[in-house]
Design goal:
single chain, 178 residues, mainly alpha, 66% helix, globular
């Protein structure tokens, strides 16, 4: 493995290990590295968005769903990113907002003491409707994501997959602890 690939792998492994400290434990790892501390929330969110691995970038959605208070550092995270990365952060942030609305009761069960609504920060900027069923708004976000990034991908399915992996893992952990 080249040095660059090794550095990317190491950073990815560190991030995934730090996510475990935050209760986001659905991502698999290649090493036994254990994190003992995590970076500050704004740096963590920015570093997740910078990752070449789509599965790790998408984990930003899970972090926000697990820790809605991190919404407060979105402006600071944006300042740390290049323009294209800022767009990705905004799109993934809005995915977290809409998924939280769609699955509010499921998330409240697991995030009870940390629960708060994620504020809608970017609908206007991204050309999304401000109202309507979360499913319809998620579909609009997926279309906007494809258009704004010139990609052909089921973005809505990608967002939903992150949420389902997170919830499924939390549900299993709850069963295991009984």
């Amino acid at each position: 493995m080249s040095t660059l690939a090794s550095e990317i792998m190491t950073e990815e492994e560190k991030l995934v290990a730090e996510l475990e400290l935050l209760g986001v434990r659905y991502l698999s790892r290649q090493t036994t590295y254990q994190a003992h501390a995590r970076r500050d929330p704004a740096t963590l969110l920015a570093d997740l968005i910078r990752q070449p691995s789509a599965r790790v970038r998408g984990a930003m959605i899970a972090v926000l769903l697990a820790h809605p208070v991190f919404a407060e550092v979105i402006p600071s995270a944006l300042e740390r990113l290049e323009v294209a990365e800022q767009l990705t952060l905004k799109l993934f942030y809005m995915a977290a907002v809409l998924i939280q609305q769609k699955h509010a009761e499921r998330f409240r069960r697991f995030v009870a003491s940390n629960w708060r609504w994620l504020p809608d920060l970017f609908s206007g900027e991204l050309g999304l409707p401000f109202t309507g069923p979360p499913d319809d708004r998620l579909a609009a976000l997926g279309h906007a994501h494809a258009r704004l990034t010139n990609t052909v991908l089921n973005w809505r399915g990608t967002y939903e997959s992150v949420a389902e992996h997170l919830l499924r893992r939390w549900e299993l952990e709850r069963r295991w602890s009984r």
